[in-house]
Description:
This protein is an alpha/beta fold. Helix content is 23%, strand content 28%.
Amino acid sequence: MRAMVLRAPGGPLRPEELPVPEPGSGEVLVRVRACGVCRTDLHVVDGELREPKLPLVVGHQIVGVVERVGEGVERFSPGDRVGVPWLGRTCGRCRYCRTGRENLCGEARFTGYQLDGGFAEYARADARFCLPVPEGYPDLQAAPLLCAGLIGYRALRMAGDAERLGLYGFGASAHIILQVARHQGRRVFAFTRDGDEEAQRFARRLGAEWAGGSGQRPPEELDAAIIFAPVGALVPLALRAVARGGTVVCAGIHMSDIPSFPYELLWGERQLRSVANLTRRDGEEFLALAPEVPVRTEVRPYPLEGANQALDDLRSGRLTGAAVLVVGR
């Protein structure tokens, strides 16, 4: 099979021919049709997440068709369309797994990081952690739902019932969650890179009440803010923008160092919290909600061999919406 392979962090992905994997007990072999390109992929490739399996096939927003099933798999059959998300496996035994917090499992393994992912024509996955893809979403439009959507949805839940919601970093996740937030009756304020007027117009077109640079103050106080950009310097800015009792949610798996800030920014019962990974329940809930909104993902397609270009476009901020690799049909 064709695959784009990471041999060493900091280097480019290399096109290679690899054997098609065999599904083991409890696993499915998925023929990949599309795979979203996520900022977490960028953190893996650039060496900011430091525990990858090497060599590695990156990619964790996989949409494809079950080709074969391993022993004991009853949930899916050949021909079923499935999604494979970031959370690829957990122990199922620890206190986190037993209390509905499997996203915090110390033995969790992640697709495209410790398990080979979807920048290839085939991927092997634990059937228990695959998700049925909602009908009505073409493969390319469904792919961003599997991480940008799922992580954004978990972050939105952590923001509570905030009416005035700020989104810092207007990329793949924010453009999805803005639609969900508007569906829920919230008022959304979008923060982009300073001077990125294209992204600001995009946010307003999707329903943002206000859009400006991340260094600007919104026209009124926020009840909560979600930071999608991996920039620690945004934390004090977001705390300054939220009202007393407000919440700032850091949604990324990696962020640059947070600078020191005066206690007065946190005082007033403001909360600062992170979101770690996702649970299967998050996936089931969000993929049921997305067609109701309905969420419409805006994507830029790339061929499989264009993965390095997609990552570079994401790294440089040249993307509007989400990048998706077109792998097969």
